[in-house]
Amino acid sequence: MLVVQDVDLTPNPQALKFIISEPLLKRESRSFQSKEEAVEDPLAKGIFEIDGVVSVFYMDKFITIEKDPKVSWGEIQKSFVNFIRNFDLSQIPVEKEIEVSSEEETALLKQINSILDQRVRPALAGDGGGLEVLGLEGLTLKIHYQGACGSCPSALRGTLVAIENLLRREVNPNLEVIPA
User: What are phi and psi of 96, to 5 degrees?
Assistant: First the structure.
């Protein structure tokens, strides 16, 4: 039985991070911005059935829910706790095997991901969010914020600049980071 062990605030006032008793995923993170996107994922789909939920992000042992500003957390939390308590972990779709050829991932992209894994993603996960690299074209890195970070004003401004500055210092002074 899954249990919500704790609830953490995030920098996004419309998002809460729920710490879960069991691991949901080992490697992947999953982000859904609508009920339609979640149709193939029973966990996210069930959470979207709760009135007021506008996005769902989950990985490891937490789920971040973003709500509609017009809905109170009290209305969402009780339904969410009941849903999680009765959810069967075996319904979560199997994680995809990652197969990347050496041609697809350049040394530069590996270096970028290494820095993001060590210095950026843990901080974002601490705030209930994540970061997905969508690609590198020349020296332009395209990223996508997940979870609480997806619609947080500070992620879209300050965090983006901080990530770009870090990568310019550590990898290449001409790198540009853009959100998708």
Answer: -75, 145
Asked whether the beta carbons of 160 and 124 are under 8 A apart, the reply is no
Q: What is the pLDDT of residue 166?
A: 95
Task: Determine the topology of domain 107-179 in CATH.
Answer: GMP Synthetase; Chain A, domain 3 (3.30.300)
**CATH 3.30.1370.70 residue ranges for the chain:** 4-91
CATH H-level superfamily of 4-91: Scaffold protein Nfu/NifU, N-terminal domain (3.30.1370.70)
Quick one: 177 exposed, middle or buried, by C-beta within 10 A (0-12, 13-18, 19+)? buried
Look at the block and give the residue holding tokens 């029973």.
Answer: 42
**Alpha-helix runs per DSSP H in the chain:** 42-48, 73-86, 107-115, 121-126, 153-154, 160-170
Whether the CB-CB separation of 67 and 54 falls below 8 Å is answered with: yes
Say whether pLDDT at 57 is over 70.
Answer: yes
- Judge whether 59 and 41 are in contact, CB under 8 Å: no
Q: By the 8 A CB rule, do 37 and 1 touch?
A: no
pLDDT in the model for residue 148: 86
